[in-house]
Structure formats: structure tokens, C-alpha cells
Amino acid sequence: MLSSYRLAVPLSTLLFALAGCSTPLMAPQAPTIPAQEGQQALMRTTDCCSSLASLLYRPITAQETLTLNFTPQSPAHDFNDGKSFFQAFELPRNNGPIALSVSSPIRDGQVFAPTILVLDANFRPVRKVSSGSLAVHRPTGFSAARLAGEFSVTPGPDAQYVVIYTSDEDRRASTTYESEDKAYARVRGLAEPAGPDPRATHAATGEVALEIASLTRDTGMAPLLGSNPAPMRQTTDSSPQPGAATPAPATATAPATATNAPDFDYRRMIDAALKAGDVELALDLAERAERSGHPGTRAWLAERLQTKTP
Amino acid sequence: MIASHYVLRRPLLAAVIGASCVMPALAHADINPEFFGYARSGIGSTSGGGSQTCFKSAGAPAKYRLGNECETYAELGLGAQLYQQQDTTFDFASRVAYVTAQDNDDESLKDDDNNISLREMYVSGTNVVSGLPGASLWAGKRFYKRHDIHMNDFYYWDVSGPGVGISDIDVGTGKLSFAWTRSEGNDDGDGLFPDSGQQISDDTIDARWSDIPVNPGGSLELGVDYGRSSLSEWQKDYYDDQGVDYDEGDKGWMGTIEHTQSGWFGGSNTFAVQYATDGIITRDGNAVGRGTGALRQEGSMWRALDHGHIWLAPDKLDMLYALVYEDKDMDDNTGRKWFSAGVRPVYYWSDIMSTAVELGYDRIEPQSGDVGYDGGDHHLTKLTLAQQWSAGRGAMIRPTIRLFATYAQWNGDAYTDARQANSLDTGAGPNNVDIDDNNGLTFGAQMEVWWGS
Fold first, then answer.
1. Do A163 and A306 lie in a common domain?
2. Does residue A214 contact residue A95 with C-beta atoms inside 8 Å?
3. Residues A105, A133: one domain?
4. Are A171 and A305 in a shared domain?
5. Cβ B95–A189 below 8 Å, yes or no?
6. How much is the pLDDT for A68?
7. Which residues of chain B from 329 to 388 reach within 8 Å of chain A, CB to CB?
8. ipTM rounded to 2 decimals
9. Which of A4-8, A49-53, A236-240 has the lowest mean pLDDT?
């Protein structure tokens, strides 16, 4: 027979535990919107903006992790490669190179396959990373299978804004991924579930985690463009024709704007880029340094690279 | 001598240089270690005093596990892909398992109840056999395509061990896999077989035809295992001298037919029927398809089971369930019938927090009183309520930290006067209910985690 005393301890333990129910530790995650429903919602949503310049850009800092929800309530725009819900950001000024990481979890057999579009200060596309270049990550037991990728960018006149959306081409593709059951079987040495790996459809809605990390943080650098913090948001005549949005590396306009920043310490930034293993960025920085009146930077980088590779 | 050495070395050297030149430079890939594993640990008490008692019906090969595991168990695995060229890969994997009674800070892995064991150490080469694209050749110790029911930790098809095999040969309709694995037994040779090297070697041959599509989302797997004790001459002489009849009991086979349905209420269902004979089944052991090292236990076994995972309300309520019937009919009347049923519904309050309830029932009907525990029919019902914090929603999502209370009820005395198994098994952890108790209550906390990359 159980005395009330014997029951007291476990029951109070459970009551204590259940008390947590009224105050969930985390807001419930938004339920997945079926791909078809999301697509229909997108069709119904009117284009928010006449051009890339008139999108609403939220400023972000160089150290931030954001959860971006693409829902029927999000603004939509007809990009030149398809209409899409989007989120747009203004990159932090006065900062060296930053790393942008995107991660889009596969939930309920669908995923938001993002394109990341980088715009210059005149809202002209300068770089486009489409979902095809993101890697498919296996589930780990504590995170779902996901599409993820990381790239670096140096905010400045040549790269001032970032738009995340999903193009028609993104949505035409699909992603084959390892199911959680299969991952568990692999990890435990169990018989793997029969049949082919599941295939996630690319939906118009979904969730993307965006992480911004400063690549110069570890060097303890002061703001590099501190001397001229004047924001220069131009909604001028630059209204770009969506048709001409082929990513073109910044060319002619770059030197003029870059030379506005005489204190820009290219060599320290190149060091930071090398430290982060981004040789491409280092080369790009050296090019820019040459163009903006720092002759010899290219040779200096070549020397650095030589010493790095015996 | 010196001259011959000198002559001999040079062609060897040349061969080594030649071989290294033939190897494509790309093959020297970086090693990206994979760290994977599983672990559970916690603390618990028995209401009324003493550490956590884990409730398992005597004679049953499994118990419902939620809030009913009394040990710390961990598997830590390390592996890496060592070679990749086009579709051809070589992968290495290793795994060490640890068990402790979780009753102290400093627990020696050499004490009773504690153990450290080498479970896996193997290499598999995929697409290395020309003519068999997609197939993997493997050798070494490994967990081999194990089949289990998660909620009661019951393995019903598991021929893991040191071995060699070729798996997943694409035959158009499904895949074929063959393996030869080793296990070891010791049938009453205690005095005679002083060290493990002299114990009985068992060989198991496993053949499977899996992934046979039979209906939308459904697939069939058929398997046959043949297990045999490989007796050396001196062992045969010993048993002949002892008058032991090992003509039938030293071998046995098991057949398995399994159907798996995916897309089953948001989860999956598995139904399996198995038949096994003689050397593969034993009175006390769990028949998993491999030789047991028993020589003189003859009989047969039928087993039917169904288990799965379903979503009752998407993202809100899911459930694990299991149903097992097993009839072990031993010629010396030491067999038993086992019936087991359990459900584990889990309600998700948020992405993190959930409440789980597990109800499990086990019933044992011994063939005779000569079984080493309560010879009458006995049964055990177990109910657990657990509040859980996990890394997401879903029955298999981990890590999880849970607070639990478990109540169990059974018929007959828990233990004999000598505190040996009666209605309750004594090997599942501390035995802290009274001898003549018919129920018990435990509570505690446990974490469970699995991971892989």
C-alpha cells in the first residue's frame, strides 16, 4: 500500500515540472505552411515596391543572429528572376568584412531555398548566391536536415544591401536529404529505413536563420570608416531596370567611392580575410586597394601568400 | 646475406615508389573525423527508500524503458571517410560502449555491473567490387543492420559481431546482403574452458533481401540466418565423454519476414514474423538470429511483432507503440510465452517542452515450473509520466532531459526469500522493493542523447 507520504515526493516533483507548462520556455514555432498554400498566397500578394531601391531595408549590426520568417504576411516583390516574399537588410557601415551564414531547416518535407542578393549603395545587384550553391546538411540528432552556406562580404559602397528571397529557379528545384530516422539508424548501427531518401519541395514560405559575424572582431579593430559616418542612402535616378540585374562586379564607380575612405586599412582587412581563410576576399581587397590609391598592396599580398604556402 | 638483402630491397623500393606514383594525387584527401554516439544517464529513487528500481517481468527479454532505466550507458563512435574517388569510398568506423550502475562519482569500468566494451571497428568499401555498383564490402567488428523496438529496447534481429560481408547489392528489385559473423558461447564448459580462446566459436551466416517494394510506401525484407557451433576436435571429445548430445542443439536457423510502411499517419509501421530453432534460441537468451553457444537446448520459437511511430495531431501529439508475441517451445519444458504491449504518447507544449506518458504491459506464461523464476503466469503493468525538455518535437528527437515518475504493478512476490527473481527480474538494476510487494513507485531524472555528423 502506498502511503500519502510515499507519493508526496514524486508527485511534488511532477507538479513542479508541470508548473512550467503555463509558461512555455519558447514561443511555439510557427506551423509549416503547405507549399501549395504558400505559393497561392504569394500569387495573391501584391508587389510591394516598384524597384529594388524602394524595398524596406532593415539595418543590421555586424554581430547578429536573426530568424527570418517568410510568411504570407511578408512583403513580396517581383524580382527579375521571379516573384518572392523577401527580407532586406542594410549592412553595417564602418565595419570590415563580415561573414553571412544562412541556414534553412527542412521541415515537413519542404524548405525555403534562399537566394542571397547583394546590392551596392545604388541598389544595383553586384553579387547573387543562389540556393544551388548551398550545401545539404544531414540531421545531427539535435538539428534538422538543412540547406546552409556561408560567404563573406565587405560592406561599403560596393556592397551595402542584402536581399534574401527565393527565385523561380530556386523553387523549381528540390532537395534530397537524409531523414531523421535514417540518421538515427546510421548513428546507432540499426538497419536503415527502406526506400530512397526523401525529397523536400522548395516552398515560397519558410524560415531562414541568418547569422552575421564580423571577420575582424578578433583583431580588435576600431571602426575603419569612422571618419565619415555620413549615411548616403540614395533613392536617386538609379532605379535599376530589373532586366539588367545580372550580377556585375563593381567596376567604374568603385574607385571614386572607395577613395572617399582614405583611412580604410586594406592591409589589416586583408590579414583578417587571410585569417578567415578567404583568399578570394583578400585578392578582391587587394584589387580595390590598388584602385583606390594604395599601390603595392597586390605585391604585398602576393608576398604574404607566398610565405603562407611553403 | 647482406648482398641478397640489398638486391631484395631495391625492387621493393621501386615497387613502393611505383605504387605511390600510380595513386592519383587527389586520393590524399583531408581526414574529416566523424564523431557520433548515443548516451543516457540520470538519477532515480524508489519511493519508500533506496535507489531506483527498474521494473522488468522475470522471463521477459525486454522492459518498457521510459523512466525505467537504471544504468548509465554510452556509445562513443569515431570514424572517417578515408578515401574517395568518383563513387568509390572507403570508410572507417569504431565504437566503444560504456555501462555503469550510476551509483557513484568515480565508477571503475572493471567493477561488477560496469563495463567498457569494444563494439565496432570496421572498414567498408563502397563501389569497390566491379560489377556490383552501389554494394559495400566490409570487414571487422560492427553493428550489422540491427532491428529493434525503441520503446522497450528490444532487439529482435541482430547478428552483430566480428565479421565480413557484402551488403546492399542492387538486384533491380530490392537489395541483397550477405554476412558471416562470429559469436562465442560456453555451454557448461566452465571448468574445462579456462579462457575465452578455448570457448565455443559460433558462426552465423546471414542473408537478406531488403527494400522489396510491395505497395506504395511499403517494403518487404526477407532474411535467413543459420548459426552453428564450430566445435574443435578436443571439444567434441570432451562432450562425447560427458555424454552430451550436441547433434541438433549446436545449430539452428531463423527466418524473418518484415514489412515496413512509411507515410503511416505521419510516421511508420513495422510488422515482422520470425521463426527460429534450436541453437539460435535458448531458455534465457533472446533469439536474435545468431548462434548462442548452447549445445543441448532444442526447441522452436515463433515471434510476431508490430511497432511504429504515428502523429495523432501534427506537431502536437505523437505516439510510439509496440506489440510482441513470442512462443518459445523448448523440448525440456523450459520455454515460455511472452506477450507485450505498450504505448508512449507525447504531447508537445512547445518546441522544447513535452509531456510523455508510457504505459506498458508484459505477460509471461512459463512452459513449466522449471524456469528459474515464478513458474506461474505472471504479468507486470508499468505507467510512467514524464516532463521532458528536448531539442524539438518528435519521439526520436534528442537530446532530452526528463523528470519522471514510474508506477508498476505485478502479481506474485517480487523476489524469492533469497532475493532471487520471482515475478521481477533482478538483473535490471537495484532491487529495492520488498520481497512480497506487488507494486512500486520510482521517480528521478534522466537525459538521453544521440548525435552524428
1. no
2. yes
3. yes
4. no
5. yes
6. 94
7. 349-353, 355, 385, 387
8. 0.85
9. A236-240
